[in-house]
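Minimal example, chain plus 2-acetamido-2-deoxy-beta-D-glucopyranose.
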Amino acid sequence: MLQLKVVALILIWWSSGVEHATVAGQQRRLINTGCSPFNASNARSFFANVNETFSDMRGEIRNQSKHFGTSQKSRGGVLTYTMFQCRNYLSKNDCLSCFNTATTQIRNCSRANGARVIYNDCFLRYESERFYQQTNELGSGVTCGNKTSNATVDFRTVGQKVLTDLQTATPKTKGFYAATKSKVAGGSAFYAIAQCVETATEINCLNCMQVAYKNLQSCLPNTDGTAYDAGCFMRYSETPFFADNQTIDIGPYLKQGGSSKKWAIIGGVVGGVVLLLVLFACQWSRKTKKVHRGDILGATELKGPVNYKYSDLKAATKNFSAENKLGEGGFGAVYKGTLKNGKIVAIKKLVLGKSSKMEDDFEGEVKLISNVHHRNLVRLLGCCSKGEERILVYEYMANSSLDRFLFGNKGSLNWKQRYDIILGTARGLAYLHEEFHVSIIHRDIKTGNILLDDDLQPKIADFGLARLLPGDRTHLSTKFAGTLGYTAPEYAMHGQLSEKADTYSYGIVVLEIISGQKSTDVKNEENSHEYLLQRAWKLYERGMQLELVDEGIDPNDYSAEEMKKIIEIALLCTQASAATRPTMSEVVVLLKSKSLMEYLRPTMPVFVETNMVNREGNSVGSSNATVSISVLSAR
Ligand SMILES: *[C@@H]1O[C@H](CO)[C@@H](O)[C@H](O)[C@H]1NC(C)=O
Ligand SMILES: *[C@@H]1O[C@H](CO)[C@@H](O)[C@H](O)[C@H]1NC(C)=O
């Protein structure tokens, strides 16, 4: 039933041997090395590029004492991306020496189109694709020393504390590097460093640190250990491997818990100001002897959902007539209804099947969903239960759904309208994920679930409903409730659900809005069949992403920079690794900011191809089609 044809091949090679290399009489520890299983298609150009990036980097180390660098070259359309990093405690000459060792060692990969070597002191990697932002999507590694510390108990205790602190502090330091020395009972010491690649984001660095920390912890109480990943490195030892005067005081980075604490400070300041104002106001009111009461609680009380009578809904929809039917969604048919008081509503008859769990869940869910108020989310007005029937009543959206504009005959949207939909949808999702008191994952974001109001502002429909789906109605896994073509690979294949699955689907929607192309439609370009996401990635890699833009959008309506940025955001959202995708509130910030995109380079996406009998993009939850999935990496 579930057939995996191609899994992103780039993931395969990140696990190979550990050796020792003896350099200039001293043991420089080679921690990990790996070669891509594919040869460069145009080896001459590719390795000429590689050589050039190497000499660029050598120059940067020698002339600018750099400890980190990236370089990319293009030659006759052949792209090469290279990155190196030395641990910051190395002197310029030691860094150069480690780099030279690495460039020699990496030649063992011969004609491979990707290679990396990781030493204790430095690392070097090149690829035919951009990877600079990768931190931990390829699988991590750890090597532990085989001696146990004499101060076993204390060494472990101190070690755990130090590694935890490094994990927290490093992503906040400038340059993503920290080195500490801590005393251990019995006169020994615990030396440790942590480092991320400088092209990572703070969040990616933290994610990487967390994995490295977990791995490295398993080495304690052995005297030394090293954890590595694509974008970070952590090492500790009882033996000094950097000088005492090279440690970094990480205390200041530990005192505050990041942004939440920042908010606490702002809150504190604001609170203080408010307090002053209140004191001032009291003073003033005492003087004037006029104290106002009431009018203080401005918040409107939350109303519970309305319980509609079945007969009223039946009348409102002319007995659920075909004429009143607006469409068929993943959870059942939707009808336009006119209530007795003249109000027009959308009435959704759910197809949920029998389940006692559902009986219990229904009212609770309805209550929860009806408390969600946001201008980019469709309001649930109430519900109705009769026998096995479960009906939801929503506010009515005159302009139906986004897919009818993009792929149907509702007329074309201009760029301003499309941008508003992109931003509004992000805001609605950010609210569901992060601002509502319960985090609601939509699980089925697609253009058909984005409704448009009279002003063509977007409102997301059907949120919270997936939680009502009983397990036996889904085919792929008990937790799967998405639409193929929009569904994040980790969710479609492994049922791993997080807010980032919505982020992925959102990215696909954005690409559809920009291109006017369906995610599941194949475009034939240069004799290769490509889905939208693959096409977008390929164009992006070549810097030709503007070719993606729908011809129906007037080029005078947008700036090239803005459009490129939004395409890049969409690609950030569809990255293969859920951890590297931005949260929806970050997406909102990115959309609204002018710059901020520097160093936020998307990594290669993965697309779940569908071979459904029914290719209309219906929810799997409601279709009986057999599904086979293949995952395509967008090469
Ligand atoms: C790249 O440099 C290596 C080592 O210096 C050399 O053997 C090789 O021929 C060079 N490759 C190209 C394509 O220039
Ligand atoms: C650090 O200590 C070493 C000796 O261990 C010394 O040579 C070096 O100058 C010191 N560096 C700084 C910046 O104090």
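The longest strand covers residues 26-35. The chain has 15 helices and 23 strands.
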